[in-house]
Structures are given as C-alpha cells and as structure tokens.
Amino acid sequence: MVEKILLAVLVPLFAFLVGIFLEGFKRKMVARIQRRYGPPLIQPLLDIIKLLSKKDNISHGLMFDLGPVIALSGSILTVFFIPTPGFKLLSASGDLVALLYIMVIGSLGMALGAGESGNPNASIGIARALTLMLGYDLPFVIALSTVILKFDTTNLYEIVAAQSDLYWGAFLMPITAVVAFIATYGAMGEHPFEVVVAPQEVATGPMVEYGGKHLGFLMIDHAFHIYIELALFTDLFLGGASNLGYFFLKIFGLHILLTFFDTVYPRFRIENAVRFFWRWPTVFALIGLLIVMIGG
Amino acid sequence: MDKEIEQGYNEILESLRKRSLWILHYCTGCGAIELPPTMTSRYDMGRFGIVPFVTPRQSDILIVTGYVNIKTLRRIITSYEQMLDPKYVIGFGSCSINGGIYWDSHSVIKKLDSYMPVDLYIAGCMPRPEAIIHSFKHLMELIDTGKADGYRRYKENYDFYRKNQRKVLGKWR
Ligand code: SF4
Questions:
Q1: Could you say which residues of chain B have pLDDT below 70?
Q2: Which residue numbers in chain A have pLDDT < 50?
Q3: What are chain B's domains?
Q4: Fewer Cβ neighbours under 10 Å: the N or C end of chain A?
Q5: Least CA distance to B24: which residue of chain A?
Q6: Is the CB of B108 under 6 A from ligand 1?
Q7: A289 lies in which domain range?
Q8: What is the complex's ipTM, to 2 decimals?
C-alpha cells in the first residue's frame, strides 16, 4: 500500500522532471540553431515559479478556474497508465484503448476553461485545437490498430515485453512508425502544426485570458504533455526500455529530432494542417495496416 | 522568528522571480524598432529570461516605447490595469520622460509618470539595444532590492493618477 502511494508520487515527479528538462533543453537548442546564446536550462522552472508566485489572480468563473486543474489531473492520470521501466502502477487488459480516451481529458479541460473566459481569441483557439485533433487522430488511431493487430494485445506492458531484443515496433513496422511519429508530432503542437497557440494570429489561443497561477498550472501540464507523447511513442515503437536511464535517453533522442523540425518550419493554416494529415499520413497508415494484415 | 522566515522566503522568491520577466508586446512610438534587434541573435535578451508575450494577462513588464498620444494612452492604461501584480513599467526614450520632440504637440502627453507609475526610464532618442539590456539588468536589481514597487504606488495614489488621466481623456469611464 505504502509502496503504491510512493510510486504514485514518484512517477509523476519523474515525468515532470523529464518534461521540464526537455523544454529547457529545447529552448537552449533553438537558441543555438538561431545563433543565440539562449536562456539557462532551468528557465521553464523559473517561469513556473514566477507564475505561481504572482500576487493577484483574475478569475472569470468556476469553470475557468477548474480548466487548468482538469487538464493537469488528466495528464497525471495518463502518466499512471504509461509503462515506465521499474514502475508498474495502473494496468488492465485494454489499457491502450483506455489511454486513447484519457488523453483527451486534458484538451477538454482546457476547452471548457478557456470557453468561459469569453474571449473570441480563446474560442478560435479551441475550435482550432479540436479541428487539429480531428486531423492527427485519424492516422494515429489507424497506426495504433496496426500495433494492436501486430502484437495481438491491447495491454501496453505486453506490447513493451513483445519488443524485447531489438524486435522494436519501428523495425517491424517502419511505415506505421513514421506515421505515428508524424501524428505524435502534430499532437505536440509544434511547428508546422502550431496552429492552436499561434501567438501572432490568435494571441496564444486558449491561454489568452490565463495568467498568473492558472498559467503556471498550464505550463506544468505542458511539461507532462511532452513526456506523455514521447513516452507513449517510445513504448509503442522503440521497445520501451529496461531501466530509467535508457528510457530517458530514447525520449531525449526523439525530442532532439522533433526540435530540429520545429525550428525550421513555418506554420500551416488550420485547413492545410488537417488536409495534410488526412492525405499522406492516412494513406501510409492504411498501407502499413494492409502490410501487417497480409504479412502478419 | 516567523517574520524572519517570511522575509527570507520573500527574498529567495524575488531573486528567482527577477530571472523570468515577460514583456507585453505592445509598441507605441518609433522606439519599438529597437526591440527586435534586442530580442534576436545579436543581443538576445532571452539570455536573461526576458521574452515577449502577447497578452497583458501573461506579462510582467509594460514597455512604453516612445511618445504616447492621447488615443494610445487609453489603451496603455487599460492594458496596464489588466496585467497581474507584480508588474513593472519601463519608460523608453526621451518622449516618455518629458515629451521629447513632441513637446509642442497638441495630441501627445508629456510626462508619462503622471498617468501611470514608471519604475525605470531609459534616456535617448532612441536608446540602443545595449541601453535596453542595461536597463533590464537595472530593473532586476531594483526588483531584488524591492524598489520596483510601481504597482503598489499605483494602488496607493490611485486618485492622483485618475485625476491626471481624466484631465486629458475626459470622463472616459
Ligand atoms: S524618443 Fe525619439 S525615437 Fe523615441 S519615440 Fe520619441 S522621437 Fe521617437
């Protein structure tokens, strides 16, 4: 019992630290690519401390306050489901399917909260977020079905176990892995899919009325979000890991790759982003599914 | 004893807080053209954790970049009041100090300090990025020593500022 409670604290802590480190590293790396010196590595942590220590808070109603809390708790719940080497918290036979639903809670909380602020930019941002979700979820769900078909299970721990000894999902199903990578990338909202926050167009979209402690919570949630997306991809296609160090290294490598793309691309318009997702990634996801169905 | 602990806690908090300051990306006068070089590769103010943000709710610093005409003053005051405490104002360029070359203009206010509490002025027409970076460093010092208390002054002398605002804007709300 005590052990479980300890794990319930340690696992989110690990996720948060990884997420916050990756974010700080990303800022530094983007700065170096742009030939700047860049902020210190702990800058995201400093930002969060500053936001949480703001003296006043503006609220636009109950749901506005609850939005960030729902988003954060949804993220923490998702972290419990994701297989982390050494820790085993929540696991059921169909947890990959459950995960798909739980991962939406975060965006939903944000949408509910931002909707109450009454700012038109927030409404546009939410509409964009939900439209984009429609875009990247189609190839992502097809890719997940391929994985389920391949390993013949919906249990994440069994999927990880089936990929031991370099039988990684990425080697067994390279096309599906690439598609899932693109979908993950879209879910993280980096350039060129940064249509939701888009500071120059909709003034950070759903976050437009959030400031102070609310925004601090949303930034913590963002750190979790980075971890969740990358850890899920690592578990599904890069064979998980045997210990925390390897796990972190795999996530780190993925994140460096993502940051390279993020730095060089401009931004899609929302309809182009959805059109992009529904064209090539979906077609290739179907091809990958076909290959697995025929080849087994 | 409790008081000392609280003071120590506040000191630590201030020294951490000064390393993350977000600027409201709202520009009034010609001085704004010196901000892009300050942000980008050459001078890179991101080193100090200072980055531009787009909405008043998220920002800590309001930079009034140059002359403020009466129409703009309304927007600036609204934006300033939307920002969350603790917030700081930097008057940028000689126009915000005493009107500068717009001294005789009928539609430009002269002394920004009578309409909103300014924590720091940067002299020059217009100040170079070096001066801007220097002013940020100075603002950090002021925050560290607790002297950047413009937001408190605004609350204490609200009637004074209100009276001055009314004088040029009329009864606007
Ligand atoms: S101080 Fe000079 S540069 Fe700045 S707004 Fe006034 S005239 Fe323009």
A1: 173
A2: none
A3: 20-169 (3.40.50.12280)
A4: N
A5: A203
A6: no
A7: 2-295
A8: 0.83
Is residue A212 within 8 Å of A40, Cβ to Cβ?
no
Residues in chain A: 296
Extract the tokens encoding B90. Answer: 């930097």
Reported as type and span, the H/E element at residue A108 is: helix A95-117
Q: Round the average pLDDT of chain A to a whole number and report it.
A: 84
Give pTM, 2 decimals: 0.87
B19, B44, B57 ranked by CB distance to A36: nearest: B44
Two structure tokens written together for B3: 């008081």
Probe target for ligand 1 pocket from B34, B95, B98, B112, with the most ligand atoms within 8 Å of CB: B95
CA distances from B131 to A40, A243, B89, B143 (A): 22, 50, 16, 18
d(CA B63, CA B122): 10
Spatial separation of the C-alpha atoms in residues A158 and A142, rounded to whole Å = 19
Phi and psi for B83 in degrees, rounded to 5?
-70, 155
Measure A233 CA to ligand 1 centroid, in angstroms.
53
Residue A192 and residue A230 in contact, taking contact as beta carbons nearer than 8 Å: no
Indicate whether residue B29 lines ligand 1 (CB < 6 A): yes
Question: How many domains does chain A divide into?
Answer: 1
| Interface contact B12, partner A, CB < 8 A | no
> By the 8 A CB rule, do A77 and A15 touch?
no
pLDDT digits (tens, 9 = 90+) for A249-290: 888 998 999 898 888 888 888 888 888 888 888 998 888 888
Question: Would you state the torsion angle of the CA atoms of residues B159, B63, A208, A123, taken in this order, to the nearest 10 degrees?
Answer: 90
Read off the pLDDT of residues A84-98 as tens digits, 9 standing for 90 and up: 877 777 666 778 888
